[in-house]
Amino acid sequence: MARLPGVLEARPGDEPGTGPGRRPERPKVATVRVRAPAAIGP
Predict the structure, then answer these.
(1) Reduced to 3 states, what is the DSSP secondary structure of residue 20?
(2) What is the pLDDT of residue 1?
(3) pTM to 2 decimals?
(4) How far apart are CA 20 and CA 38, in angstroms?
(5) How far apart are CA 14 and CA 2, in angstroms?
(6) pLDDT 10s digits, 1-42
(7) How many Å apart are CA 37 and CA 13, to the nearest integer?
(8) For residues 6 and 8, what is the distance between their CA atoms, to the nearest angstrom?
(9) CA 32 to chain centre
(10) What is the Cα–Cα distance from 7 to 34, expressed in whole angstroms?
(11) Which of 25, 32, 14 has its CA nearest to residue 40?
(12) b/e per residue, 8-34, with b = 16+ CB within 10 A?
């Protein structure tokens, strides 16, 4: 699970506390779930 931290760092706009009016948990989990498999596949 070393890809999760890398993906989170690459997307500072999706990090919790920096999201303007955005839910940090929902968008974060959705982005990580879509990015993790995409990076592991290819």
Answers:
(1) coil
(2) 46
(3) 0.12
(4) 26
(5) 18
(6) 455 554 545 455 555 555 555 555 555 555 555 555 555 655
(7) 20
(8) 6
(9) 4
(10) 11
(11) 32
(12) beeeeebeeeeeeeeeeeeebeeebee
